[in-house]
């Protein structure tokens, strides 16, 4: 089982590496242009991508370990892993947010992969969509008090 977890985590890392090496992404970092991100470059992304792989394994393992628990509880568990992954990312990028959104999205996706591993369910898009909806159904509750925080403290996603 550990080999499968490692393989899936490595595939997630490869996806991040492939994404940053694509050229002609207006506004986004690529090998020849930082786009609108003057505080980062491709090397910042490469550093971040490499440091995140162990956390990808943790997301998968958490999904696997919590397969018989309500999926909302899995979401709460992976949030902590996501925060740890963000700390690792910030430590190698000198505080630059290269992959916060990817950590969030891949964390959910990989935890569901962990749940699927044991169920031996076919990996269909519709199944993932349903599981993601179930896992994140209470997510908007996080934004209930956002108007009480200062806009300067918001992430770009919260601002949008």
UniProtKB/TrEMBL annotation:
GO biological-process terms attached to the record: prosthetic group biosynthetic process
Endpoints of the signal sequence: none
InterPro entries: CitG
Entry superkingdom: Bacteria
Catalytic activity field: 3'-dephospho-CoA + ATP = 2'-(5''-triphospho-alpha-D-ribosyl)-3'-dephospho-CoA + adenine
Keywords, sorted A to Z: ATP-binding, Nucleotide-binding, Transferase
GO molecular function, one term: ATP binding
Its EC number(s): 2.4.2.52
Pfam families xrefs: CitG (PF01874)
Protein name, as recorded: triphosphoribosyl-dephospho-CoA synthase
């Amino acid at each position: 089982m550990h080999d499968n977890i490692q393989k899936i985590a490595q595939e997630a890392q490869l996806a991040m590496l492939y994404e940053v090496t694509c050229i002609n992404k207006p506004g986004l970092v690529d090998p020849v242009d930082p786009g609108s991100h003057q505080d980062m470059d491709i090397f910042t992304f490469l550093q971040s991508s490499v440091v995140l792989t162990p956390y990808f394994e943790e997301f998968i393992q958490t999904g696997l370990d919590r397969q018989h628990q309500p999926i909302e509880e899995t979401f709460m568990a992976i949030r902590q892993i996501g925060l740890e992954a963000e700390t690792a990312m910030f430590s190698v990028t000198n505080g630059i947010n290269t992959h916060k959104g990817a950590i969030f999205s891949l964390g959910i996706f990989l935890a569901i992969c962990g749940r699927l591993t044991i169920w031996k369910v076919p990996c269909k898009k519709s199944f993932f969509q349903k599981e993601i909806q179930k896992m994140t159904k209470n997510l908007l509750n996080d934004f209930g008090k956002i108007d009480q925080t200062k806009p300067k403290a918001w992430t770009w996603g919260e601002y949008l």
